[in-house]
Amino acid sequence: MMTVNLSFWEKEAFFKEVDVLIIGSGIVGLNAAIAIKERKPQFKVLVIERGVLPIGASTRNAGFACFGSMTELLDDLSTQQAEKVWALVEKRWRGLQRLRERLGDDSIQYRPWGGYELFRPEEKESYEACQDHMEDFNLALRSITGLPATFDNRDEDLEGFGFGGIQHLIYNQGEGQIHTGKMMAQLLALARERGVEVYNGMEVTKLETSVDGLSIRLKNEWQLKAHQVIVATNGFATQLLPELQVRPARNQVLITEPIPSLKIKGTFHYDRGFFYFRNVNDRLLLGGGRCLDLEGEETDTFGLTTHIQNNLQELLNTVILPNTKFQVAQWWSGIMGVGKQKTPVVERLGPHLSVAVRLGGMGVAIGAQTGEEAAKVVLDG
Ligand SMILES: Cc1cc2nc3c(=O)[nH]c(=O)nc-3n(C[C@H](O)[C@H](O)[C@H](O)COP(=O)(O)OP(=O)(O)OC[C@H]3O[C@@H](n4cnc5c(N)ncnc54)[C@H](O)[C@@H]3O)c2cc1C
Question: Fewest 10 Å CB contacts: which of 215, 322, 337, 381?
């Protein structure tokens, strides 16, 4: 491909004297840019993105506005200090309120329909552990969600949903769902309204320190300069910064054609959250199954595999929609950034370089604060 150099005019008008350049226009990158512009309106803030759209996780996720199912919390409490676990729950809860306030419930199609966790007969032990902890959890959550009982048993809803092979349901009153695409479109519009410049089709291949800032090399051989750079590329972070403790984790997702008789409403967690599904109006969205091939799915390459697709299809046929006619309309995949620790990495790596990555499966909830924390790291040192 022929390389076209930047003209003098282009350099002067678009890329000169950049105060902060953010790599990646996902939920974190855009929130960081907005937060910087709000505090420093005079700054030239650029977001550069390799995709035509922000193609990573933010426009490809399931849109669960969630802060932890009971089995997820029990699992976290078995590996981390209780204080840390509840602090993260609070962060997720507050993050969701912040996202809703900032963008507006209507524009992100927030629906407060609650979330359910499904239990099969063979998950008796896990279900009983949830029963043993429900009262304590509700007590701990009272000061966070303000709800008298965040979790409760809802076996009576089983018949209406028509699931196959499910024995118990635990309901989470505080969970909701959003329209992921509309949320990101709204966030992009807000960033532009605040004066953030967003450029697409710009893939960064290398970062190099120079005397007065950082030099950013692009795939098309352009070279930009910025005083401060934030890497917000999440699951792709080690492509630029191999030393970071972030691993990619692919997730495969499907959505059905509209199902006029669909009774399922809300967000649903199955098999300890390895599978998740929800209604999108009268369609059913299902994703996950990474547990079926953890090694194969530790990849930052988009794609679908027959093994996981067959399993998701089987789950629809036997558990989720056993007595309903449906057709799968579309499949896609997204890449998350995960690590041993379930917290994002937001830190300064050098005088001109910071990172905000490793959002796991929590980006809808904590993406806004993570972006704001990155802005703080850059502006306050
Ligand atoms: C299928 C799926 C379902 C999920 N479901 C939920 C859910 O229901 N609820 C929830 O809270 N979270 C969910 N998540 C997680 C959530 O989507 C992420 O935590 C969040 O979107 C991460 O945002 P981000 O901005 O850090 O990263 P991303 O959205 O991945 O953004 C990173 C951006 O960087 C760009 N980029 C990468 N490399 C370069 C480069 N070299 N140069 C320029 N640009 C580059 C990418 O194109 C991308 O747009 C899910 C994730 C997936 C994949």
Answer: 381
Work out the pLDDT band at 323, boundaries 50, 70, 90. Answer: confident
Ligand 1 in reach of 108 Cβ (< 6 A): no
Residue 191 pLDDT level (bands cut at 50, 70, 90): very high
Q: At residue 135, does pLDDT exceed 90?
A: yes
Q: Is 72 in the pocket of ligand 1 (CB under 6 A)?
A: no
Is residue 177 classed as helix, strand or coil in its secondary structure? strand
Coil, strand, or helix at residue 219? coil
Cα separation, 357 vs 144, in Å, equals 25
In the chain, what are the domains? 8-59+182-245+341-380 (3.50.50.60), 88-174+246-338 (3.30.9.10)
Write out pLDDT tens, residues 286-298: 999 999 999 999 9
Nearest alpha carbon, ligand 1 atom 1: 61
The number of residues making up the chain comes to: 381
Mean pLDDT across the stretch 176-187? Answer: 98
pLDDT digits (tens, 9 = 90+) for 192-229: 999 999 999 999 999 998 878 899 999 999 999 999 99
Output the six-digit token pair for 271. Answer: 């098999």
Half-sphere exposure of 313 (CA within 13 A, CB side): 12
- Compute, in angstroms, the gap from residue 131 CA to the centroid of ligand 1: 34
Q: Which of 49, 241, 251, 253 to mutate to test the pocket of ligand 1 (most atoms within 8 A of CB)?
A: 49
Cα-to-centroid distance, 59 and ligand 1 (Å): 7
